[in-house]
Specification:
Layout (H helix, E strand, L loop, with lengths): L5 E2 L10 E4 L2 E4 L8 E4 L10 E4 L3 E5 L5 E8 L18 H10 L2 H11 L14 E7 L9 E9 L4 E8 L2 E10 L4 E8 L5 E8 L4 E7 L2 E10 L9 E15 L2 E5 L2 E7 L1 E10 L1 E2 L4 E2 L5 H13 L3 H16 L3 E3 L10 H9 L5 H18 L26 E2 L3 H5 L1 H5 L7 H21 L10 E2 L11 H4 L4 H16 L2 H22 L1 E2 L5 E2 L10 E2 L5 E2 L6 H20 L4 H12 L21 E2 L24 H19 L7 H13 L3 H14 L15 H14 E2 L4 E3 L10 E8 L3 E8 L2 E8 L4 E7 L2 E7 L5 E4 L7
Helix pairs in contact: 1-2, 5-17, 6-18, 9-11, 9-12, 11-12, 11-13, 12-13, 13-14, 16-17, 16-18
Bound molecules: alpha-L-fucopyranose.
């Protein structure tokens, strides 16, 4: 029987941060910001483990004193293979459209099932690389009594640390993912020399084997073996992958045997770890000319030239330079002496903890840094980069009917613009397969993707024609690329990346639209993700034409193309054509039944009124078509979200993490800070896991990112000039934010007291005129290149 081993001392957490081990001062805070998740117990399961990531590799650190587990991911390791799944719509599409527009949805659906159903229907999953286990105390009869246990993740340094004492010895572990050196680093040390004895093993539950590749190194090599699965594409040996762990010891011995490295009697041990696959992003496929084992060897070879201290120093420097660009205080009490799980518990029991909201806000920024940047290429998926399952929930894919887009909502406004690049990379790459989907399935030009994609560039309809027909996935992605330009004003990005993407997306839309009975341009077929309507005869469908969201997306896309086209001197005839189409789109309508925004082109009854998707409010957020300047729509938008909530509270849908996070952003746009704060509290109370991961359930990272974007949106909006503190909750009496980013590439600091603005500071890299707003005050100011511009509570310039 294992004795209870954790007798936790009451010593204040901070005191543990300054132990001296073997002459090395280990300072818990280092260059960090004091923003930490910390716990007095090891993770009992994955949802308590702590994430580190460098954009290409991720790891979840459990911190168990007896058996440490570090679960590993590499961004490109996917099951499946590249397939051409598009159905040939040529023969079917005209009839499907005709039936939809005539209101004969049953026939349209039957025809779609026959003519538009893709093959294979589904995609396969993003997979983990495997696990590192570190076993201690294997040969002891009874486990020693452990004390002063603490594990933490310091968001400012990106270092996960575990510490505990036994028999007068203090043991410390540090884990971080270095973007500079492209590796994961694990260091174990003991306060008493010669006391480190353990076995580190590298494992994967399937499709791989591990051998020593040198006396101090392990090599895992594998190949995903896809078993036959209904409608999921070819079975067979697919993506190849490898991982290497190299270890070094100070004192004692270190030796690789079988799948393990045995360390005995050491003072300190350090491991560098990397993984790779034969995935080639350029080809959106695996590529047999790539040898993952050699890739790993090359990465490790470089890292081995560098000692732990300099790798760590470079990591902290690089990490903190990005992370520290933005600071937020909500005037909260400092509760850092209370473990994070207990703070969360207190909130779940009804307390409010603004500091926890700040921590979650910054955690969203941290998680985007961990899952979306160089050396990685791919964007953050449904779980960022962190996934433990061979068959993950929703395959941990890139869901393009909101989830992938939501992941990137905080990238620009939270001053992390370079983290957006992987989103652009994928959007740009999807133009290749997306042209086939546009031309074959939808008989149009340009490119598009439906409601999901994977690393193999799936763009065809997936998961069935009712659910998966969402030709607006591409235009929505394109719009986000355009928005990134609006934030950064990077002309080169506009010319070389954004413009080709949005222009070709608009080509798709123009070729796809058809005229309805009122002579207006509509999409057909499509759906309003992922909601179902009921016809007067009781039949229920998802498939439709001219869903409100589609019209809003197309309006925004045409507006973007017109603005970009004018900037770039595009052909006037084309611009005029777009302008004409825009005028001939159906209007956004208000439902006669409920006074809400009408979700479909007809005022259908919704089957699930508390549905998690609120697609018809796309025009409220992320787009900016529904604003206080259109009072009727603005009011209808409020009613729409309230109605969703009302039904959700009766237990009819809605409560998923990302959906609540969307509500935070929408309430911010409705200028209702108290409602936004209530939704944040709901997220904390019902939808947050002990490691502060968002709980869909299960874990899904979009909620984390949507949360972060939402908090920023409450403090600053910039879709229509700069609006300071547009949705400040009553509970946020005082506070201070430094380093938000507004469209126009303007950095914004704001402080407030007693719920009133105190001071604003703006810095713009270029000279420009901007409209600013606070409460009822409106004005225009001229910013000079690089010169800070400060305003007081009356929006008067400060000296
Ligand atoms: C959409 C959502 C689900 C889930 C999935 C990954 O289908 O409706 O709630 O988030 O994406």
């Amino acid at each position: 029987m294992i004795k209870p081993i954790y007798s936790f001392c009451k010593a204040a957490a901070a005191a543990l941060c300054f132990f001296v081990f073997g002459g090395i001062a280990v300072k818990g805070q280092e260059a960090g910001t004091g923003l930490r998740l910390w716990y007095k117990k090891p993770a009992r399961d994955w949802n308590e483990a702590l994430p580190v990531g460098n954009g290409r590799m991720g790891a979840m650190v459990f911190g168990d004193a007896v058996r440490e587990r570090i679960q590993l991911n590499e961004e490109s390791l996917w099951a499946g293979s590249k397939v051409e799944a598009d159905a040939d719509g040529a023969e079917w599409l005209p009839n499907i459209r005709k039936k939809l527009l005539e209101g004969d949805i049953r026939s349209a659906m039957e025809l779609s099932e026959k003519g538009l159903k893709s093959d294979p229907l589904r995609i396969r999953s993003y997979q983990p690389v495997g696990d590192i286990y570190i076993d201690f105390f294997k040969n002891t009869r009874s486990l020693p009594e452990l004390s002063e246990y603490r594990r933490e993740l310091d968001l400012g340094t990106g270092i996960a640390r575990t510490e505990y004492s036994y028999a007068g010895i203090r043991l410390t572990r540090e884990v971080f993912a270095s973007a500079v050196d492209n590796i994961i680093v694990v260091r174990l040390s003991s306060s008493v020399p010669g006391k480190l004895t353990f076995r580190l093993s590298l494992n994967r539950e399937q499709d791989a084997s591990v051998v020593p590749s040198a006396k101090d190194e392990l090599l895992m090599q594998g190949q995903v073996l896809d078993l036959p699965a209904v409608e999921s594409g070819p079975a067979g040996p697919h993506m190849k992958f490898a991982a290497r762990v190299w270890g070094m010891n100070k004192g004692g011995s270190l030796q690789a045997i079988n799948n393990s490295i045995f360390v005995e009697g050491a003072d300190e041990a350090v491991f560098y770890l990397t993984a790779a696959t034969d995935y080639n992003f350029e080809a959106l496929n695996y590529d047999r000319s790539i040898d993952p084992a050699r890739q790993c060897a090359a990465i490790l070879e470089k890292a081995r030239q560098r000692d732990y201290a300099s790798i760590k120093q470079d990591h902290i420097r690089e990490h903190s330079a990005i992370f520290n660009r933005l600071s937020l205080s909500l005037g909260q009490e400092d509760k850092d002496t209370i473990p994070t799980d207990l703070r969360l518990k207190a909130v779940k029991e009804g307390k409010e903890d603004k500091g926890l909201a700040v921590l979650q806000f910054q955690y969203g920024r941290y998680l985007l840094m961990g899952s979306s940047r160089k050396p990685g290429v791919l964007p953050a998926n449904l779980q960022g980069i962190w996934n433990k399952d061979m068959e993950a929930a929703w395959n941990s894919d890139f869901h393009t009917n909101i989830n992938l887009q939501m992941n990137y909502w905080p990238a620009d406004n939270c001053n992390l613009s370079e983290l957006f690049q992987p989103f652009t990379n994928l959007t740009n790459k999807l133009r290749g397969p997306g042209r086939i989907t546009a031309s074959k399935t939808f008989q149009s030009k340009g490119w598009t993707v439906n409601h999901l994609t994977d690393v193999f560039g799936r763009t065809a309809i997936a998961d069935g024609v009712g659910w998966g027909t969402f030709p607006m996935g591409g235009p929505w992605m394109a719009l986000q690329v355009w928005d990134h330009y609006l934030f950064t004003r990077d002309r080169q990005y506009l010319e070389q990346e954004a413009w080709p993407i949005i222009k070709e997306s608009a080509e798709f839309v123009l070729g796809f639209l058809v005229k309805d009975k009122n002579g207006q341009w509509v999409t057909a077929p499509s759906n309003s993700p992922e909601n179902t309507y009921r016809l007067p005869n009781g039949e229920q469908y998802m498939l439709t034409y001219g869903a409100t969201m589609d019209i809003q997306i197309i309006t925004a896309l045409v507006d973007a193309c017109l603005e970009a086209g004018k900037l770039l001197g595009e052909d006037k005839v084309l611009l005029a054509q777009w302008e004409k189409v825009r005028k001939e789109l159906p209007p956004v309508r208000v439902s006669k039944r409920y006074g809400t925004i009408q979700e479909w082109i007809e005022d259908y009854e919704e089957v699930e009124p508390g549905h998690r998707h609120i697609s018809h409010l796309f025009g409220l957020y992320p787009a900016a078509q529904i604003t206080p300047e259109q009072p009727e729509l603005f009011e209808a938008a409020r009613k729409t979200i309230e109605r969703r909530h009302q039904f959700a509270e009766k237990g009819q849908g809605f409560y998923t993490g990302w959906s609540k996070a969307w509500s935070v952003n929408m309430y911010a746009r409705l200028l209702d800070g108290d409602a936004a704060w209530k939704n944040i509290l709901d997220m904390q109370r019902y939808l947050t896991l002990p490691n502060l991961f968002d709980n869909h359930p299960p874990f899904q990272i979009d909620g984390n990112f949507g949360f972060t974007a939402g908090v920023a949106e409450m403090l600053l909006q910039s879709h229509n000039g700069l609006h300071f503190l547009p949705a400040l909750p009553n509970a946020w009496k005082e506070g201070d934010v430094k380093g938000l980013k507004a469209r126009g590439n303007i950095l914004v600091d704001i402080s407030w007291q007693d719920g009133q603005l105190q001071e604003v500071k703006l810095v713009s890299p270029i000279s420009q005129k901007v409209r600013i707003k606070y409460g009822n005050l409106n004005k225009t100011v001229v910013l000079k290149e690089g010169k800070p511009f400060s305003l007081n509570q009356h929006l008067l310039k400060k000296k």
